[in-house]
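Before relying on records like the one below, remember that each one covers exactly one chain. Contacts with other chains, cofactors or solvent are not represented anywhere in the record.
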Amino acid sequence: MASSDFWRNLAIEFRAVPDAPTLWARWDCIAGSGSAGKWLLIGSRAATLSFDALARRAAVGIADAGTSDLLTAWLEGLKRQGLGFKFANPNVYKTPDGTGTVRYLTGEIRGLCEVSANFCKTLESRALQSEFERKKHDQESVKALASRQFEAIKRTLELRSERKEQTPEALAVDALPQLEPTEKGMPTKKVRKKYPRGFNGLQGKHADMSGYLALVDLTPRQRECYSLRKEYNLPLTEVAARLGIDRKTAYEHINQAEKRMRLQLEKRRDRSGRIKIPRIAE
């Protein structure tokens, strides 16, 4: 259906047709012929031309796919709505061969422009209601979508909160695979390796960076993570396991330690570009 603005403007244009009061339409049809009949516009030339153009434009908004003539479609629409249409007395004529009779139906629509304007106002009301319902449906759809997105975000935040509240030991337990015994009594999945806590069991440093670490102000956790990773050359997984934290936290501690070292060591460079490292007492 056309928009409410379309019908509102057409109603104004129908009432502005020149010589509108003198314009009317006549309808003729042979009873039982199965045809829709024929329409004839009667009035001044200016009135008929203006009305013809407006009626065809209006018919675009109501015509179905099978319409062949837009002017006829508009006048038939007025006739179906009973807007100003009146039947006249039927005429009966004998057939040329005299063997039967033909019954002619006639009708007319007076005040054609005013009737068309009123029909446009009716269609405007329908369009306004349709636009209101469509807007309401769209608002409800947007509201429902926003509600679903809010619930999804809320659930995501809840899951993150639940994960943060778990202890590292609980996370490790959740991460362990569920072991199913086989017929031979052996587990089907490999059990994760357990590491000693902290620096226990370590043989010797891969690289001694005590002099550099003495120059940098690090937190105890940063110092432990950095030493295990860089001095003892341990994998990130083992570093996290020895300190009872997850891999991501261990990586962040090491990354922060490296940033602090670069920043503070640059301040200790002498004019030759060398870094002054204090001697560590044995």
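The chain has two domains: 4-124, 197-282.
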